[in-house]
Amino acid sequence: MRAALSILGLVIVLAIVMFNMKHQAQQIAASRPAASAASQAGQAGAGGLPNPQAIGQQVNDAVMQGASRASDAQP
Fold it and tell me: Where is this region: Disordered (predicted)?
C-alpha cells in the first residue's frame, strides 16, 4: 500500500511539473515572434542583445590591456 501511494505521489508531482513546463513553453513561444520581429527591424528593446562588434572590440581592448600589464610586470 505504501509503495502504491509513493508511486501515485510521484505521478501527481510529474503531472504538475509537466503542466508548468507546457505553460512556460507556450509563453516563450508567444514572446519569440515579437522579439524576432524587433531584432529584424533593427530596434531591439531594452532586453535586446548588444552589438557583436562592440563586444568584440571590448574583448580586444581587454586582451591588449592584459598583455600590456603582463609585459610591464616582467623584469
Answer: 30-75
Indicate the number of domains in the chain.
1
Q: Which residue range forms the structural domain that includes residue 7? A: 1-37
Is 14 contained in some domain?
yes
Domain membership of residue 56 (yes or no) is no
User: What backbone torsions phi and psi does residue 19 show, to the nearest 5 degrees?
Assistant: -65, -45
- Assigned domain for 31 exists: yes
Q: How many CA atoms lie within 13 A of 39 on its CB side?
A: 11
Which residues have a Cβ under 8 Å from the Cβ of 47 and sit 6 or more positions away? Answer: 35
Q: What averages of pLDDT result for each successive group of 10 residues across the chain (75 residues)?
A: 95 96 90 62 59 90 90 78
